[in-house]
């Protein structure tokens, strides 16, 4: 029903407006008696063989929702009814920010892709932490994806990441340091070896000073060279990271079916969806091989089917995340992936 009825209606709306429409209505529906049980019956799928322990956390299944969908942790209880074992909230910055001017989210239906330049729009770490403190479903694993505010110079970025970490440390199960979004000016410069080591060392020192440290991961771009990926592995080992998220959106526009003039007219932003599948898998496979399987990887990028998820896992990912595929294929995709893994 999603692809034949719901999706055509949503795709008549502006992409960001459709996103808020889904949020509002899922929240309302979840308050109707019996709806949460109905959603679980339709979309949740459990089996002992799906369970896995990754960086010390036990996941009911390997399928999660990537950062960017529920930026402010407003729908974690509702999303738990759709079969996800974990949801990564954010990207969360220390202070609230409105993000880039609209329009800033665009569909490319011919490519089953999105272009976004949201710009870390979120309510700020204290407000997100308060929202998470009110959640009822504590079986759902929550990842906290953190970043810096747009107006914070890179030289002072560590203070922003530490502030976001401190605000969320009691309410998330793992952290992801995001230095790979293309939509905050200068942010990707933090992926260079020296600034990245400096940043991660400071966040990790704060993390390890806690009675119970949280797993700390790094989210990387698909546009890195092999030499840069080798640096990432060295950095992960040197700063004792628990794992990587591979990959974020790409700034590339190669191989698209959509008219090049139309794409150019949409302007800057990160591309996600089917066109990213192959490159994201290549990055996962490379990282897995070069780290001799010693570095857990959350695989993301172009997962639109059960076969796509299996491809990421076969390449070396321990877990997978959906975003654009969830929008194009609907909530049934989670169940499809988990059922295929059991079969």
TrEMBL record:
GO biological process: 'de novo' pyrimidine nucleobase biosynthetic process; 'de novo' UMP biosynthetic process
Pathways involved: Pyrimidine metabolism; UMP biosynthesis via de novo pathway; orotate from (S)-dihydroorotate (quinone route): step 1/1
UniProt key word Oxidoreductase: yes
Cofactor binding summary note: Binds 1 FMN per subunit.
GO molecular function, one term: dihydroorotate dehydrogenase (quinone) activity
Record-linked Gene3D superfamilies: Aldolase class I
Topology class, membrane: Peripheral membrane protein
Flavoprotein keyword on record: yes
Superkingdom of this protein's organism: Bacteria
EC number: 1.3.5.2
Location relative to the cell: Cell membrane; Membrane
Residues bound to FMN: 67-71, 91, 145, 178, 219, 247, 273, 302, 323-324
Record-linked SUPFAM superfamilies: FMN-linked oxidoreductases (SSF51395)
Binding site for substrate: 71, 116-120, 178, 183, 248-249
CDD domains: DHOD_2_like (cd04738)
Active site per database record: 181 (nucleophile)
InterPro entries named among the record's database cross-references: Aldolase_TIM (IPR013785), DHO_dehydrogenase (IPR050074), Dihydroorotate_DH_1_2 (IPR012135), Dihydroorotate_DH_2 (IPR005719), Dihydroorotate_DH_cat (IPR005720), Dihydroorotate_DH_CS (IPR001295)
GO CC terms: cytoplasm; plasma membrane
Catalytic activity, as annotated: (S)-dihydroorotate + a quinone = orotate + a quinol
Role of this protein: Catalyzes the conversion of dihydroorotate to orotate with quinone as electron acceptor.
Subunit structure: Monomer.
Protein name: Dihydroorotate dehydrogenase (quinone)
Species of the source: Hymenobacter nivis
